Amino acid sequence: MANDIEEDAQEQLKAALWLAVGKMVDEETLRRNRNVTPQFIGALTDMVWAQIENVALDLENFSRHAGRTTINTDDVLLLARRNQDLHAIIRDFVDKQKAAKAKGKSKR
User: Fold this and answer.
1) What is the reported pTM?
2) Would you say which domain of life the source belongs to (predicted)?
3) Average pLDDT of the chain to the nearest whole number
4) Residues near 53 by Cβ (< 8 Å), separated by ≥ 6?
5) Is the separation of the CB atoms in 17 and 45 below 8 Å?
């Protein structure tokens, strides 16, 4: 029973991802005056799904290695460590969020 629920949830997520990828591809093909097949969208969706699974597994492992049960921004930054531009964007975002949070606490 629990496995069926998990499989249903996974199928719903995959369907939502397929719609999102399809929308992005449609927008880009219209902009570039190109056509793609539904098979292309399906293959791209499968590739994105596999990447999401790998990222999720890495984040879980980083968190577990640190002795935590919750993934936090340190895990995300560790994941992005090999892509300097992405790492800088995430680091900047995290720093701004922390500064805004600290500013909000100091107003109390």
Assistant:
1) 0.78
2) Eukaryota
3) 94
4) none
5) yes
- Note whether 70 and 63 are within 8 A (CB): yes
Q: H or E stretch including 102?
A: helix 84-106
Element (H, E) at 37: none
Please tell me the distance from the alpha carbon of residue 28 to that of residue 25, in angstroms, as a whole number.
Answer: 5
| Residue 107 CA from chain centroid, whole number | 33
Q: Is the pLDDT of residue 8 over 90?
A: yes
Pseudo-torsion of CA 68, 72, 77, 80, nearest 10°? Answer: 90
CA distance 98 to 95: 5
CA distances 103 to 26, 97, 98, 107, Å, are: 42, 10, 8, 7
CA distance 94 to 100: 10
